[in-house]
Design brief:
Elements lengths: L9 E4 L8 E7 L9 E9 L4 E6 L3 E9 L2 E5 L2 E5 L4 E4 L4 E6 L5 E9 L1
Antiparallel strand pairs: 1-2, 2-3, 3-10, 4-9, 5-8, 5-10, 6-7, 6-9
Length: about 120
């Protein structure tokens, strides 16, 4: 399979009550394309001031690989700055949030796999 850039599904929506909308460019289209081992493999774009609001994972874990920009990451209540090359991981039963606190778009790869 080859999926050309212009063929990717792109969704923009408010996530978990966060500010603004997250732009999600689907790399794979959900669980069927991930052998039912996960549910999200996206190129995530957060414009300045936008965020993925606080949420807790149950039965899955999420990794962010920050490609571009700077943000504030809430890792179970511990708030840290993140930037290009940083990787975050939230396990099942843990919570997180990501805010674009910079002045340019924050771009990340988001991957959610089932436990």
């Amino acid at each position: 399979m080859i999926r050309r850039s212009e063929e990717k599904i792109v969704e923009s929506k408010k996530l978990f009550g966060g500010q603004g909308e997250a732009e999600m460019h689907k790399i794979l289209n959900g669980a069927p394309e991930m052998y039912n081992k996960g549910r999200v493999f996206n190129h995530l774009v957060l414009h300045p001031g936008c965020e993925v609001g606080w949420h807790v994972h149950q039965g899955d874990g999420e990794t962010y690989y920050i490609l571009k920009g700077h943000g504030t990451y809430n890792d179970n209540g511990t708030v840290v700055e993140v930037g290009p090359g940083d990787v975050t991981f939230t396990d099942s039963g843990e919570g997180h949030a990501l805010l674009n606190s910079g002045e340019e778009d924050l771009e990340a790869i988001a991957l959610i796999l089932y436990c």
